[in-house]
Amino acid sequence: MAPPKKSGRALLREEGLERTDNNLRTHSWPVIPMINQKNYYTEYLKREEQIMVFRQQQEDLLKAQAALLEKEKQAAMVVDPMAMDIDRGADEGEETAEQEEALGSKVIVIHTGSQNMRIGLASDALPRTFPNCIARKADKAEYEEEERCPKRMKVAEEDEDSDDEGPQFGEEFESQLNTMSNELKIRMRHNKRRILPNSRDLVLSYNRRTPPETIKEHNDPYRVEWTDTGKHKAPDHFVGNEALRIPDNSTPRYRLYWPIQYGTFNERDYQSKRRVLEDISVILEEGIKRELNIEKKDLKLYSAVLVVPDLYDKNYVTEMLNLLLKEFWFAQVCIVQESLAATFGAGFSQACIVDIGAQKTSICCVEEGMCVAESRLNLKYGGQDVTTVLMKMMLSYSFPYRDINLRRRYDFLLAEELKAKYATLNDSDISVQAHDFHLRAPEQDTKKYHFKTYDEVMLAPLTHFKPTILSHEEKLIGRRSLWERSYDLYDGQPNDPLSTAQHSLYLSLIPRPSSAGNDSTANMGTITPARPTLAGFGGFGAHLTAADTTPRSSIAGSPAPEGTPAPPGTTTPLVPGAGGIPHPGSVGAPQSTGVTPVGQAEDRDRVVPIMPLDAAIVESITHAARGEEKKIKDFLASIMVVGGGSLVSGFNHQLEERIRALKPSKEYQIIIGVPPRELDPMVIVWKGASVFGKLKISNDSWIRQNEYDILGSRLLTYKCLWTF
């Protein structure tokens, strides 16, 4: 009989090879079970408490509640027990009003302009305005170092009876002046206005033969109180109106500086970044202390709203943000654009904002509380150019005060006064009229001049529509000498914002070599309704297409591992400023060819963007509408002009006529609106920024100290209401 068959396990047991489990693990790594992918869950970024902004708001709310509770406890300790049954319902409305008032009483709104600075609490009705300048000790005053303004091509004779009629400002200026004068005569004849044939000769004859009257200082009721510098204990600096009232021949000498120029930092009159930022800091500190009675040490309890231009340099915004947070130690800072602030101040939801300042004019269309990015235009002319042209024209008409020099402080104030009094754009005001003014110079008797004007008071404000009457080359002096342009961190290309409207303007101004058979130069300045392509430009919109309006990620890919050979036909990207590689355009960098984005950015820096104001408005609206007729009609019917340059009498009517000439169709209703509630156009931007600073919906836009310590200026990408 065969033995019974044994299983394999029994055989292994008999042979001593059976595997037994002694609970000994072969390794010490924890065993992680597989995830059941049907029902796994995570709470990452699912709750509001995980977002820094929400946590900060909750912390602020808890602090406010704790402070209110403490205040109620202190009040309960001193309350009369006999008066505990007081009805509190009647005081609810007053408490709500006090809370709203307190909401703006801790917010300081700052609007830094090229000529004036406006600051004030958001709860104030109007801002405090003072010149944005500072006077520092120097060897010479500005009129002793710089050429007099306006620049004379031929020095006038000292003899007042001289009949020298030679042009003082060159043949080109005289030619354009005669052309504008003839166009004005045609316009007045068309409007049935009477014109005397010898009006100009009457003005020339009267101005040449009218001597000034001398008034003793003690007989002048409006004599000027000049700033006393103190010879022995002279301060290092003066700010604002005090700086403008310093005598030019004072002992010691003081030189006047304007740290903001053309909407950005003044790189022409300064030798270092530190001095520019120091002057801005001193002006702002002195203004807050004098006008608002707030010490610098108390600013940590206040918030700040900073108004910036629509088209800006990124370095300007980041430096100003760092100044407010790290120099003044504001609790939090919010940034708003000028055009958006203007719509908040006027209460418009859709408008084309035209902001005419002292040195720049900005145009931007605003729709539903957002600036249309592609419609932004920044033109480098403003009210100071009108002042210069007015003085040139008056001197061409034998202005009796021939030695006027806008580099001297009292002459600059006199020229601004003459422009504010006599500049007009009303046809009815154009005739031979007699005027007078008082020249008040330090340590001199007052002189009363009599003079006559004709058409120069209307031709000068027309500079906005004919900006080529002036030479703008000097506005490029010092450009990029202190601050280089901003570059993208990944691909090393310029990333300062650039709209398609501004791009089209630069294309019409940058000279390009003409080629045979290329007829593109004939229509460089035409307005194209379609969205132009920004190929080759590294500024705003470089990664956008007509069908894709969402910004894509950077075009630079992830770096390859070390030692990996590059694919054929490619080059290694160079990051400017890293590893000894100079920034493009700096000393030691290769010259631009005009083809690369860096080269085209350098070409833009060599051109002053100027354009007639009426054509610029139509250009901006065209790019904002993107071919939609309804939007074009809406923007043309809601144009609002703000800024000090719009205070010229008849300006809105003149602008409306010129835009209608460009858009003659009856389908377009062109309306130039005015700020409501009779608000001053100069403060409408500040007023809108104060309204924005009190809104509860703007909580997400505040940049706080602890956030800035962690992320720095990168917060602007997340906190700004627009694509920074």
Blueprint (SSEs and pairs):
Layout: H1 8-15, H2 52-78, H3 92-105, E1 107-112, E2 116-121, E3 128-131, E4 134-137, H4 142-145, H5 171-190, H6 199-208, E5 213-215, E6 237-239, H7 241-244, E7 254-257, E8 260-261, E9 264-265, H8 273-292, E10 303-308, H9 314-327, E11 332-337, H10 338-346, E12 350-356, E13 361-367, E14 370-371, E15 377-379, H11 383-396, H12 409-422, E16 433-439, E17 446-453, H13 456-459, H14 500-509, H15 597-605, H16 613-625, H17 629-636, E18 639-642, H18 651-662, E19 672-673, H19 684-694, E20 703-704, H20 705-711, H21 716-719
Parallel strand pairs: 1-10, 10-11, 12-18, 18-19
Antiparallel strand pairs: 1-2, 2-3, 4-6, 4-7, 5-17, 8-9, 11-20, 12-13, 13-14, 13-15, 16-17
Describe the structure.
The protein is built from 21 helices and 20 strands. Helices cover 33% and strands 12% of the residues. It is α+β, with helices and mostly antiparallel strands. The protein is elongated, with a radius of gyration of 34 Å. 33% of the residues are buried. The chain has a domain at 143-155 and 166-227 and 383-472: Actin, Chain A, domain 4 (Alpha-Beta Complex). α16 (613-625) runs antiparallel to α17 (629-636) and α16 crosses α18 (651-662). The strands form five sheets. It has a six-stranded mixed β-sheet with strand order 3-2-1-10-11-20, with helices on both faces. Strands 12, 13, 14, 15, 18 and 19 form a six-stranded mixed β-sheet that branches.
